[in-house]
Amino acid sequence: MILYTKLPETMENINSTVTKEMIVEGLKNLGLKTGDIVMVHSSLKSFGYVVGGVDTIIDALLETVGEQGTVVVPTLTGSDKLSPENPPVFDVKNTPCWTGKIPEVFRKRKEAIRSLHPTHSVAAIGALAKFLTENHERCITPCGKGSPYYKLAQMKGYVLLLGVDLRCCTLLHTVEELADLPYHMQKDWVFAKVIDERGKEQEVKVKIHLYGYERDFLKMEPLLLKEEAMKLGTIGKSSIRLIKADKLIKIALKQIKKDPNFLLKT
């Protein structure tokens, strides 16, 4: 497997080279530490040239939180084509995610546990991987109560944005589901087929997202910074954001209470 493309050894490329040590140092400087739980949204190309490619980034994340910590990545598979008439079919081992190269490589690691939700699965490695991923397919909504996203906030975990911004933050869907916003979920139940690690099929009854309403999650950034719920940093060419999950939910719910359409683009 080719993890990265070797670039010509120009001075510009040498200056933008990123190593595992640089990633670990950058994450620690931002405040991530041993024992933390962190959900990572990411862009590989944002870093520039990474020595060792995808696996270097994953190894750096795992090293930073240590054996007592847990790294989670979204391995989403949902789309606007899904409905009660066209329900999802999800194979936990073989259905690829569309959330990027890093989560796709991460979910295939032998130690990774992937949840069984048919549209909003996550993969996790670490001390709380089983706890975070178990029973996700039994949750009424993809990101609401009982989901890995909700558990992350309950456990005082973090959202880490590597080279991406709040437009990729799935935890804001948790906010929408907790607030039961009418624009967010399809009205009718969906009966999805899920295939687990052993190849056993089961039918699960879930609610899935309703697409078509454009979000403006970026408006949360100044609020998070003001409340000291987010820290900013840089690793290589990549802009990094570390967000306290529970504070994000609290701040966003406060805004939605005043304006139910706060997270929508106007």
Notable characteristics:
266 residues, alpha/beta, seven-stranded mixed β-sheet, three-stranded mixed β-sheet, 9 helices, 10 strands, disordered N terminus
Task: Give an account of the 3D structure.
The structure is a single chain. By secondary structure, the protein is an alpha/beta fold. It has one domain. The protein contains 9 helices and 10 strands. The chain has helices at 11-15, 20-30, 54-65, 101-107, 129-133, 148-154, 171-178, 221-226, 245-258; strands at 37-42, 70-74, 89-91, 113-114, 122-126, 158-162, 190-195, 201-206, 230-235, 238-244. The strands form 2 sheets. A 7-stranded mixed beta sheet has the order 4-5-2-1-6-10-9, sandwiched between helices. It has a 3-stranded mixed beta sheet with strand order 3-7-8, with no helix packed on it. Strand 4 and strand 5 (122-126) form a beta hairpin.
- N-to-C terminal Cα separation, in Å? 44 Å
The poorly predicted ranges are 1-14
Domain module count:
1
- Major sheet description: 7 strands, mixed
SSE pattern, N- to C-terminal? HHEHEEHEEHHEHEEHEEH
- As a percent range, the share of strand residues is 15-25%
Mean pLDDT: 94
**Helical fraction:** 25-40%
